[in-house]
Amino acid sequence: MSPRPPPVFRPASARRPPGMRSASARPRPRPLGKVANVTTANTIKGIYEVLDDRFVTGRCTNGDGRLEILHAGSRWAEGPLYVPAWRQLIWSDIPNDRILRWDEPTGTVGVLRTPVGNTNGNTLDREGRLISCEQGNRRVTRTEHDGSVTVLADRYDGRRLNSPNDAVVRSDGSVWFSDPDFGILSDYEGHRAESEIGACHVYRLDPVTGEVRLAADGFDGPNGVVFSADERQLYVSDSRAARIRVFDVRDDGTLTDGKTFAEAKDGVHFDNIRFDDEGRLWAAALDDGVHCYDPDGTLIGRLLIPERVSNLTFGGPKNNRLFITASTSLYSLMMSVTGAPRIQRHR
């Protein structure tokens, strides 16, 4: 007998919960929409909201439908990254200034490193080294295999960066990162300071010269950065503008003028973004759970999460486990879709 499919919620309308509260007023965890009953101490069932049939036909609602709580106790969880060589999921606990790790074979959680300069986003380069956005230290670093830390970028045109947030590595070795001012607005997730640059941009770090070049501007609060599977497009979420922009990548690595891929409504704001292997874009939408967008930009479904969703990543041996950081917790969901590789083969 084939397994019974997990429950889904088909709303009478696409009305969303009230808008996002300020980051300084972290709300208590609350359910979104019709989150089904908690069946065990660490499992929630029935988290799908279908907004378009493609969310079902594309197998986005398959899997076992169990949202697992892997860890609770962070102050503000961010920057999840699955490290295949370790079979571990690492993530940032920004206000507590530490990187935590969850071990997949044993389920144990420990501290990978502290202090970490209020690290936010994490990724891997082609050699499997950890690239981190230290928003408190206002720099992008690389952790070498021997554990030493190399500073990759801390200035642009002689001026200190604001507070790097998220990074992605292209197959040519270049590191692209967002630089909003979130970490210099208060001492909660960084250090209060004035911006030396005076604006929030996305940058490209040259893999040969180490030069930091302006890749894209015109953002209110650039956040998540991710390449399409063919690396011909760069997607950037702009949290304050409540939209996701997409840029074409020229052969020389520069970007064309961006256009809007998706816009959030009713006070919803985007945080980080990731692709699956079918070209759908999954977006952390804070109080509105996780959004799933078809390649044409249509919002086709949501994952209803009981806390504010900050970030997400695919991982596991088959890359079909979605890890979600939300407020104080780390969640995971076994999926029938597979995440896109973080780094493509060099073209």
What is this structure's SSE topology?
Blueprint: E1 8-9, E2 38-40, E3 43-45, E4 48-50, H1 54-57, E5 66-72, E6 77-83, E7 88-93, E8 98-103, E9 109-113, E10 119-124, E11 130-134, E12 139-143, E13 149-153, E14 155-156, E15 159-160, E16 167-169, E17 175-179, E18 200-205, E19 212-219, E20 222-227, E21 233-238, E22 243-248, E23 259-263, E24 273-275, E25 281-284, E26 290-293, E27 299-303, E28 309-315, E29 321-326, E30 329-334
Parallel strand pairs: 1-4
Antiparallel strand pairs: 2-3, 3-5, 4-27, 5-30, 6-7, 7-8, 8-9, 10-11, 11-12, 12-13, 14-15, 16-17, 17-18, 18-19, 20-21, 21-22, 22-23, 24-25, 25-26, 26-27, 28-29, 29-30
Could you say which structural class the secondary elements and strand pairing correspond to?
mainly beta
- β-strand percent reads 35-45%
- Major beta sheet, specifics? 6 strands, mixed
List segments where confidence is low: pLDDT < 50 over at least 5 consecutive residues.
1-40
Rg, alpha carbons: 19 Å
Overall pLDDT score: 88
Across the major sheet, the strand order is 1-4-27-26-25-24
- Looking at the structure, what is the overall shape? globular
Total E-strand runs: 30
In helices, the fraction of residues equals: under 10%
Q: What distance lies between the first and last C-alpha atoms, to the nearest angstrom?
A: 45 Å
Structure annotation, total helices? 1
